[in-house]
Amino acid sequence: MEAVVRVHGGVKFYRGAAKAARAYVERDRSRADDYYLAEGSGAAARLTATPDDVTGAGSMDGETYEQWVAGIDIDTGRKKGRVRDDVSALRFVEVTVNGPKTWSLAAALHPDTSAALDEAQDKAAAEIVGWVAQHATTRVGPRGRQVQVPVEQIEAAVIRHYTSRAGDPHRHLHLQVNARVFADGAWRGLHSVGVRDMIEAINGIGHAAVATHPEFRATLAARGFTLDPVTAEIEQLAPYVGAFSARTSQIHRNIDRYEAEWRREHPREEPGPRLREVWDRRAWADARPDKVVPTDGAELVARWNDDGEEYLGVYKRVEKLRHMGRLRPFAVVPSGSEGESMQSFVDGHGVFHRITTT
């Protein structure tokens, strides 16, 4: 099985085997997602859209998702027109719906924020798919005399991931627009270059839909969080991003190295989920030799809480005192070491506290 994923201006163009597409989306998260996703909840949500409406069409398990990627009409079981089956055939174009790292940290800390962020990202996905349905085109007519026409219907798959490959909190959606679209009475090929040219609008729609989502904003405010007006980072959690990001980068590099070594020894093969789980655990062990390696998703999420004592423990203690009315921020200043900052606080008794964070 072969697959080629090319990135142009933030849009990924997936070409190749449908089975490899399933492996492609599964490799972008850790086993911690198993903790969040209930058994049988499906690998992907399917959306159908016209220029006037976006409709949820249920969930797809792994096998159904592979059929969808291969150009099969899930409702009828028939191919969507003349579907190419060679390795160069475009299967879907993908954009990622995510946001600042601090959004994911807040969701990991508070279940109500987690639910609100899920809802906001779902809203963003629907708005993006609706916008693409209004602006995407396809070609109609004989070779050499083709003209561009608006699409009448598109389909998209939405795959939700809660973690990065390193197992850190990283809320994001893979939004995949199927390369087969309906127009002028038949299924045809999506004009993919047009989607690439839409990326600035797509990114803007997705970011704005989440950042301005009323329930998400209200939930953050209730927790005492505020958003930076320029970056939309949660200001209270921004100092703690660096520690998570450094470890994430190391684990990513480890996993990439294992995969490259394996592919050299197994050409034209795709690694399965069990092998990727082995790589996940090995990467954790190599990156954090002083820590016990998690064995399942629940343990990995619990590890976030352990790391919270290391990375977010300061925040948790400060937040508890603030809610009790016993603490107010005093200053945030650079520390002596690169990447460090000093957070100073004054509690309700007038006692000054200075805490260094990385």
What does this structure look like?
The protein is α+β, with helices and mostly antiparallel strands. The protein has two domains: 3-243, no CATH class; 325-358. The protein has eleven helices and 14 strands. A seven-stranded antiparallel beta sheet has the order 1-2-5-9-8-3-4, sandwiched between helices. Strand 12 (327-334) and strand 13 (341-347) form a beta hairpin. It is globular and about 60 Å long. The two termini are 43 Å apart.
Spatial ordering of strands, largest sheet:
1-2-5-9-8-3-4
Morphology: globular
- How large is the count of helical segments? 11
Largest sheet: number of strands, sense, barrel closure: 7 strands, antiparallel
- Tell me the radius of gyration: 23 Å
Percent of residues in helical segments?
A: 40-55%
- Helix/sheet category: alpha+beta
Q: In percent, how much strand structure appears in the residues?
A: 25-35%
